[in-house]
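DM from R.C. (forwarded with permission)

"hey, sorry to bug you on a friday — could you get me a structure for this? deadline for the figure draft is monday and I only need the backbone to look sensible"
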Amino acid sequence: MIFDIITLFPEMFEGPLTESIIKRAQENKLISINFCQLRKWGVGPHKQVDDTVYGGGVGMLLRPDVVIPAITEVKKTKKIKKTKILLMTPQGQTFKQQIAEDLAKEDRLIIVCGHYAGFDERIRQFVDLEVSIGDYVLTGGEMPAMVVIDAVSRQIPGVVGRAGNEDESFSKSLDRKLEYPQYTKPEIYNKLAVPDILLSGHHAEIEKWRSSKTR
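My reply, with the result:
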């Protein structure tokens, strides 16, 4: 899987994408993450990327004559048929596990990160999917993009291993429900004990208990 990120702030991705599972996935060539500086397509000597809102309004919008050429050029850099272009925006479809699983079937994702007050409306015509991670407003699309990259990467074979995500929360095997409660050693801590059923060795009963606890 190739992730191409169009952003004004590529430095924001350092840390979350350079540690732990995502770091190993890159080292093992299971995923590739590339950054495209949006200001490269900026207008004029100062490489302006945003401007005021027609009709009045607070804030600045990213210009279509900056973002659309960026999308077009980045897409042309690699001739990969199974490519989807994502726009990170509060108006988008709420990101869920099913979407992560569907996106993991692609070979390449181009993720466009907004900033400032948002995008010129015409930009939406040049993307395949608009994505939101919830009903709240952030300073930009970089953190939502990190969420998408992490969730999608987990669905790629070899990133977390077969056993790592087959029964996790929101998986198909759990009917998209939250995972059941889990316990580890010690068996008793501060008078709080592991449920007896989990110590019984009766696997059928354990599965029945787990099924009753998903929500």
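R.C.: lifesaver. The chain has six helices and nine strands.
me: no worries. The CA atoms of residues 105 and 156 lie 8 Å apart.
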